Amino acid sequence: MSDAIIRLRGVNKWFGQVHVLRDIDLDVKQGERVVICGPSGSGKSTTIRCINRLEEHDSGSITVDGIELDENTANINAIRREVGMVFQSFNLFPHLTVLENCVLPQIRARGTSRKDATEKAMAYLQRVHIPEQIAKFPAQLSGGQQQRVAIARSLCMEPKIMLFDEPTSALDPEMIKEVLDVIVDLAQSGMTMVCVTHEMGFARKVADTVVFMDGGRVIERAPPDELFGHPKSERTKTFLSQILAH
Amino acid sequence: MPPPAARKRWAWGWLDAVLLATVAGLLTYLGWMSSTVFSYQWDWSSIWPFIVRYDEASGSWVPNLLIEGLFTTLRLAVWGILIAGVIGTLMGLCRNSPRLFLRLIGGSYVMLIRNIPPVVFVFVFVYFIASQIMPTLALADSVAGLSATAQWWVSVFFGTPRLIDNFMLGLICLSVFSGAYVTEIVRAGLQSVPRSQIEAGKSLGMSRIDILRFVVLPQAFRNVLPPMAGQFIQLIKDSSLVSLVSIQELTFMAQDVQVTTQRVFEVFVFIAAVYFVICFSLSRLFAMLERRYARAHH
Question: Dihedral through CA B64, CA B66, CA B67, CA B68, nearest 10?
Fold first, then answer.
């Protein structure tokens, strides 16, 4: 597909002897919202971590926005500028305030002036609904607030693609909604997203495509209504019955 | 129903009374012994002339041996902490580096120094190494060639220009020695920062140097403030070792004065008190720093 902004072809990865990614083929179009689901150990997180080179794939090719992802550091840096990531454990910088967390990467990685960086940070912190917390340190915030700061921090870099690695898995149930609302809002504004999550309600609402992975392979890929309503593979059916049982 | 009354932290039991009585008794006994049995006459006034003396030429009080020694020790302490800190940080980064060559350099440096007693290291360093390098540097001659104002500044920061070779020797020796211990502390600090912090920096497109400078090192240092403070205090105490190779710091001067006045106890109790004040002040300063950073994280 010529308009795929992310393309994985035949991607394989081993951790030592363990074959965690087996011949992964994946295309993500510009503006598409992709949700990846599957049992733990299926390689979901590893797949998206390969996209921004936090993990190195052993064979196959990964192309992001036309740039081939390999050992070339110039390519890696160019790709990381286009791709933002939100982690399960937030990964905010604990020694910096909320505002400084959002401002520092802009100043260092983009060369933005402090004044412009602060303006942009304030705008995005407003968008995730926590402008009043700018002077606080991450440890003083709740999990939901920290994750929203993490999302704002990534958005300040104005990426073309956002990757989410189980963004709500470490949150208390009452905070999941506030974070999902922010992500839904982002999706509706047209951001290209690849989201690894167990939140099926969210997937139904927002995803264009749901990808089911198991044992390091892509088992099935379809729009949410089709995948949840009429799953083709047995393994998909088993997984869904376990997830949707409660 | 109301919660039970909080238990007092300092509960006084019969065992505490017994211990206190024993300690008080022991101290009284020692006090009596030292005044009656030890035929030692305490004479504090005899060391006073060696702290300050009246200089007829300029008509004022000028510092004498002990104060000069104190200033040298303070200079060794401040410069030593700075230089050992820099050496330790660089070597700590080497130890943690993905490059094998850097890891070997850092590792050998630490291994060499940590497995030799400080006194032996001082002798080896000063007599073998310095006797070859110092003459080549000829610092005293370079300084003698500077203007009078420049020389005054040199004397403030490094002590008497004439003795600058001597001071530099002690300083380098002390810094290289302490640097090995600072290296290990820095390495522990670097490893205490979770990998996820580095991943966050990478995913934001920050360079490795920027991640090190703005994300990793600040957290690493905050995490190891207690052992780092301990090492710096140890450095001040280790500075007394360089007296063995005639570096003119406080302990060296004290030995000088002791030989002249024969007042062993007064001199050494005095400098023990001086070292105590310096080290204790530094530990208070670090405690304040730790509290300030702890507040930010909780």
Answer: 80
Judged by CB atoms closer than 8 Å, whether chains meet at A54 and B199 is answered as yes
Q: Do B201 and A52 touch (CB under 8 A)?
A: no
Please state at what angle helix B65-95 crosses helix B264-297, rounded to 10 degrees. 40
Which residues numbered 125-154 in A keep a CB inside 8 Å of some CB on B?
A: 137, 139, 153-154
Instruction: Point out the residue among B206, B210, B219 whose CB comes nearest to the CB of A95.
Output: B219
* A120 neighbourhood in chain B, CB within 8 Å: none
Residue B210 with chain A: CB contacts under 8 Å: 108-109
Q: Whole-prediction pTM value?
A: 0.83
| Amino acid (one-letter) located at A13 | K
Q: Report H helices in chain B.
A: 14-36, 65-95, 100-114, 118-123, 131-137, 139-144, 148-158, 164-192, 195-203, 208-210, 217-223, 225-238, 250-261, 264-297
Consecutive H or E run containing A8: strand A4-15
pLDDT of residue A1: 44
Residue of A nearest to B209 (CA): A108
The DSSP secondary-structure symbol of B4 reads P
Contact call for B204 and A139, based on CB within 8 A: no
Nearest Cβ partner of B205 from A89, A92, A157? A157
**What single DSSP character describes residue A110?**
I
Q: Residue A15's beta-bridge partner residues?
A: A18
Q: Which residues of chain B have pLDDT under 50?
A: none
Count CA within 13 A, CB hemisphere, residue B253.
21
Query: What is the predicted pLDDT for the residue at A138?
Result: 94
DSSP string, A186-236: HHHTT-EEEEE-S-HHHHHHH-SEEEEEETTEEEEEE-HHHHHHS--SHHH
DSSP state of A145: H
Residue A133 in 3-state DSSP?
helix
Is B204 close to A157, i.e. CB distance below 8 A? yes
Q: How far is C-alpha B175 from the geometric centre of its chain's CA atoms?
A: 10
Cα(B239)–Cα(B237) distance, rounded to whole angstroms?
A: 5
- What's the ipTM? 0.91
Distance from CA of A119 to the nearest CA of B (A): 18
Pick from A52, A108, A139: CB nearest B206: A108
Q: Which residues of B touch A65 (CB under 8 A)?
A: none
User: Quick check: helix, strand or coil at residue B40?
Assistant: coil
Cα distance between residue A18 and residue B271, in whole Å:
65
**Cβ contact, residue pair B214, A54, below 8 Å:** no
- Mean pLDDT, residues A207-220 taken together: 93
Cα radius of gyration (chain A)? 18
C-beta atoms of B206 and A92 within 8 A = no
User: Residue B96 has which token pair?
Assistant: 């943690």
Residues 6+ apart with CB under 8 A from A71: none
Are A9 and A204 within 8 A, CB to CB? no
The pLDDT score that the predictor gives to residue A201 is 87
- Smallest Cβ–Cβ distance between A108 and the set B199, B210, B296 belongs to B210
- For an interface test with A, the pick among B193, B204, B214 (most A C-beta atoms closer than 10 Å) comes out as B204
